[in-house]
Amino acid sequence: MIIVLSSTASERNRDDVAANLKERGYGVHVSVGAEKTIIGVIGVGVEEKPGLSDQFEALPFVEKCLAVSAPYKLVGKNFRPGGTTITVGNVVIGGDTMVVMAGPCTVETPEMIIETAHTVKAMGAHILRGGAYKPSTSPYSFHGHGVPGLQMLADARTETGLPIITEVMDVRDVETVCEYADILQIGTRNAQNYNLLREVGMAKKPVMLKRGMSSKIEEWLQAAEYIVSQGNYEVMLCERGVRTFETYTRNTFDINAIPSIRELSHLPIIADPSHGTGKASLVPDVTVAAFAAGAHGAIIEVHPNPAKALKDGAQSLTPEAFETLMARLKKLAPAIGREL
Ligand code: PEP
Ligand code: MN
Questions:
Q1: Which of 108, 196, 210 to mutate to test the pocket of ligand 1 (most atoms within 8 A of CB)?
Q2: Does the model's pTM come out above 0.70?
Q3: What would the pLDDT profile of 274-332 be if each residue is shown by its tens digit?
Q4: How far apart are CA 102 and CA 160, in angstroms?
Q5: Considering all CA atoms of the chain, what is the largest pairwise distance in Å, rounded to the nearest integer?
Q6: Pick the CATH number of 2-69 from 3.40.50.300, 3.30.70.890, 3.30.70.1140, 3.40.710.10
Q7: Which CATH topology does 86-335 take?
């Protein structure tokens, strides 16, 4: 960490800061410039940085404190340079494989989820998605079937063998959702719900953490650090688009985030072009782009009849469109040195 003293700081102020830091056991390196004095602090742990910055920035003669390394460590690339792989059933997420998760936004009826599961499986999907607890901007829209919805997903897994991913929204539901799900999804609206992040960090299930719709990459990684710091290292990140000035698409899918996460973290990165675009016509191209940019997986909304979907019909692929997309991905895989 670096502490920049303001130009009004006296020599006495400088020595006090240095003595204070040494007393706390840190190495101290003072550089006196023509205008400013900067103090390099050596040995500050990632856990200590926020508190230390706050304390020193409160001093009238300190201009600012700067962190020179990332505010996370367990999810950082250096922690596991080879990358993390997460095995769910016989699906491996991470490494050189391309994983496709597909299914409806919401589990609607037992028949529709089983039909969709069979359809996407036949087309090559590896994991079934579907929401039983649905976050919704309007308090009056459908919020999912809850536990009966989880049971419908579990039945679809029994029928098809596809592992299931589903969202958990509330700390109080984590235990129940864990009884059914193979992967817990944390949605964009809960991406900074730190109590929920800690709770799933104590769960014995892999977690897919979506990026908050206005989270910076660093904030997203810090959110992942909340989970991992509780002992659960089976975390994958999911880029699902962020809010920008653009209104033509529902969100702006941040393609930059994919190689950025690969550079910064060892956690697998999944793309969600459905929520990232909000338009079914754009989903296939953005999926291809995301894999080409290095995504380890994609999560795609597919509905047997999007026009009748209870949620997110406009961005849901028909089975035919999904089949065409899977054929494109099969061709793409060898060209980018990956396996579908
Ligand atoms: C979803 O996956 O259906 C969903 C609600 O996603 P997000 O949290 O990204 O909006
Ligand atoms: Mn959705």
A1: 210
A2: yes
A3: 999 999 999 999 999 999 999 999 999 999 999 999 999 999 999 999 999 999 999 99
A4: 13
A5: 76
A6: 3.30.70.1140
A7: TIM Barrel (3.20.20)
